[in-house]
Amino acid sequence: MRRTRFTVAAALLVLGATVALRGLVLTSQAVPSVRITPVAHWSLEAQRTIVPPPAGVGNKFPGEAAVYMAIVHVAMYDAVMAIQGGYRPYAVSLAAPADTSPEAAIAAATHRVLVALLPAQQGDLDNRYSEYLSKLRGRSTRGMWYLRGWVST
Questions:
Q1: Confidence (pTM)
Q2: 94 pLDDT band (50/70/90 cuts)?
Q3: Contact in structure between 102 and 83 (CB atoms under 8 Å)
Q4: From CA 82, how far away is CA 71, in angstroms rounded?
């Protein structure tokens, strides 16, 4: 009886796996690149900066890391709301010219908060911030001069 149950369970497991994988086609083709949003990009940068290895280089453990990540995301939200409006800001009410780049605002807000929270990592954060902004040049960077004075000083 016990052996029969095991055999039936194994058969169902194999059948389920076969049905689940039936439409799956394995290929060696590269997966097309996906454009990552500025919020996702800077969220990953924050995670890398805050969380301890192997996920990052920071030294904040779960409870503290969660609070730091929340502070970063509130700063991103408030920076975008200062430009686009439509919702109430969460922490601070700011005003920015309409032509300020949301991408640059997200980068500047995240950079500013991370440097304030983790000053020992400022050099690395400055390098990653500059690299990101250099990729924005020629795109939507109007108003960035204002944003630098507004958020990152």
A1: 0.69
A2: confident
A3: yes
A4: 17
